[in-house]
Design brief:
Number of strands of chain B: 0
CATH class of the largest domain in chain B: Mainly Alpha
Oligomer: heterodimer
Strand content of chain B: under 5%
Largest sheet of chain A: none
CATH superfamily of the largest domain in chain B: MetI-like
Radius of gyration of chain A: 25 Å
CATH architecture of the largest domain in chain B: Orthogonal Bundle
Order of helices and strands of chain B: HHHHHHHHHH
Number of domains of chain A: 2
Largest interface: A-B, 53 and 52 residues
Helix content of chain B: over 70%
Shape of chain B: flat
Distance between the termini of chain A: 56 Å
Number of strands of chain A: 0
């Protein structure tokens, strides 16, 4: 009997059933972790470990989130930040792609200048903000300049790496058709290396957005970074949490959109 | 028979020298443009003044002590990332269902602008080194977790089979096979994580005017000491680059021979 039971236990399940079970289990684990986080959060909130309102209950954060989303000031500031990030990315991407093509197409240029670009890329860019203020003023231009600088490095390095992995046959085909440098760039290089360039742009957008927001927290009178500092000085903690959730969501959404574009061009 | 000489452009030192000389030439051009008043000296200081200011910031601004403060914060946060991140990575490897559920969340955490939440951390932990360390820790944790997981997953099948053929226990399998094979990948995670820690520490110090090298730049800029500000920024970039080169050197040293 026992052996029959053992055989019955080993009845193979189809792959679809197994996958369905695993997906369900993944959902359960996620739900448990999310609930645990909420429970710990609420526990800390009610425990009085921190001063009042430093860790507000979700019952305060959720209404603050709704209030924030119907506040016209939020949308005006969001618009400024998005304009800064978009302009930063446009300037950083153009400069990065041009420099990346130069570094990637010539072994000498690559060897001479790429180490500098490579080692400067992870340095903390926000410290250049005082220089940007001196050069471009306290308005949005200094944030755009700093954001462009932040996005430039990731895009230049990805483009240079992308250039080097282009199939040599494609380049020879372009040359045999006597393509001009512009035609080579637009018809051969860019289409062949769209994936690394898009990866660079994804990283660059993240960098541009974060840098612009951080610069706004330091010195500005508009933008979401400025709004964060305003709320912080008012000590309106539920709204601060709500705004940070929204900013994290926007950063994640930007990342996801470019990731989707990259996947769709494969 | 005449020996074949490597062309100058194909050597490793010549392009690097050309690169360095280009930066020197840019400095000389700026010096000339500033001295001839083509560019405004109130906005851009003379490169020669910036070079002289290096000595001043070392002697008068306590740069070495400040470097020590920032280094302490980076190392504390970095070590905390390793102490917490590596076991978390192992945990995710051990329980496949947890890995499938949480890997994307951790990857999202790696891309999240955590430094932007510094006002929140200031309220929670006060204006002090603890806040800087906690932010740097939160910013640098994800790469260690993800790279530890990646290193364990990519352990070569043949190594695991050798372990099985020797009848190794689970513990032996982990310490003798899986962990040593994952070390190069774990160190890649540590390099990324500590790079994030440097960015977070100096960034937060600068933004909230607190602590080491970041605060120095903020101080110099607020005093409108332009040569000092440029020299301070140059010094921070130099220190960061040396730190990255050391990390990269250790990472290469740990890579298995191919």
């Amino acid at each position: 009997m026992a052996s029959t039971g053992a055989i019955a236990m080993r009845v193979p399940v189809s792959r679809a059933v197994r996958e369905r079970r695993e997906t369900r289990n993944v959902f359960y684990v996620r739900a448990i972790v999310a609930l645990a986080i909420v429970a710990i959060w609420e526990g800390i909130s009610w425990s009085g470990l921190f001063f009042g309102d430093v860790v507000p209950s979700l019952a305060k954060i959720i209404p603050a989130l709704f209030k924030l989303l119907v506040n016209p000031a939020f949308w005006a500031n969001l618009q400024i930040t998005l304009v800064e990030a978009a302009a930063s990315l446009a300037i950083g991407a153009i400069a990065g792609i041009v420099v990346g093509i130069l570094l990637g197409s010539s072994r000498f240029f690559g060897a001479a200048f790429e180490p500098y670009v490579y080692y400067l890329s992870p340095t903390p860019r926000i410290i250049l903000f005082p220089i940007m203020i001196m050069w471009f003023g306290v308005g949005i231009a200094s944030k755009i300049a700093l954001g462009a600088l932040s996005s430039f490095f990731a895009i230049a390095l990805s483009t240079a790496a992308g250039m080097r992995q282009i199939d040599k046959v494609l380049i020879r085909v372009g040359r045999s058709f006597r393509a001009t440098p512009w035609q080579m760039a637009t018809k051969i290089y860019l289409p062949a290396m769209r994936l690394p360039v898009l990866t660079g742009i994804r990283l660059g957008l993240g960098n541009a957005l974060i840098t612009a927001l951080l610069a706004e927290t330091k010195l500005s009178n508009q933008g979401l970074g400025f709004m964060i500092m305003q709320i912080y000085t008012r000590f309106d903690m539920p709204t601060l949490y709500a705004l940070l959730i929204v900013v994290f969501f926007i950063a994640g959404a930007c990342n996801a959109v470019i990731g989707m574009i990259a996947r769709s061009t494969k | 028979m005449a020996s074949r000489k490597t062309p100058l452009v194909a050597t490793s030192w010549f392009p690097l020298t050309v690169g360095a000389l280009t930066f020197v030439a840019i400095g000389v051009i700026f010096e000339i443009l500033l001295r001839t008043d083509v560019l405004n000296r109130y906005i851009i200081p003379l490169p020669s003044e910036v070079l002289l200011a290096f000595e001043r910031i070392v002697v008068e601004e306590g740069v070495l002590t400040r470097t020590g403060v920032s280094a302490f914060e980076v190392l504390t946060a970095g070590l905390a990332c390793v102490i917490v991140g590596v076991p978390l990575g192992v945990l995710l490897y051990r329980f496949d269902i947890v890995r499938r559920a949480l890997e994307d969340w951790i990857a999202a955490l790696a891309a999240a602008p955590i430094v932007l939440a510094f006002p929140l951390f200031l309220v929670l932990f006060g204006r002090g080194s603890t806040t800087v360390i906690v932010i740097a820790f939160a910013y640098g944790l994800a790469p260690v977790v993800l790279k530890t997981l990646e290193g364990l997953i990519e352990t070569r099948r043949v190594l695991i089979n050798v372990g099985k053929s020797l009848n190794m226990s689970q513990t032996q399998m982990f310490w003798k096979i899986l962990f040593p094979s994952a070390i190069p990948s774990i160190f890649t995670g540590i390099r990324l994580s500590w790079t994030f820690c440097v960015i977070a520490v100096i960034g937060v110090e600068f933004l909230v005017n607190l602590g080491g090298l970041g605060q120095l730049i903020n101080d110099l800029a607020e005093r409108y000491d332009m040569p000092g500000t440029y020299a301070g920024i140059g010094f921070v970039i130099l220190v960061s680059v040396i730190f990255f080169i050391i990390l990269e050197w250790i990472e290469k040293w740990l890579q298995p021979a191919r």
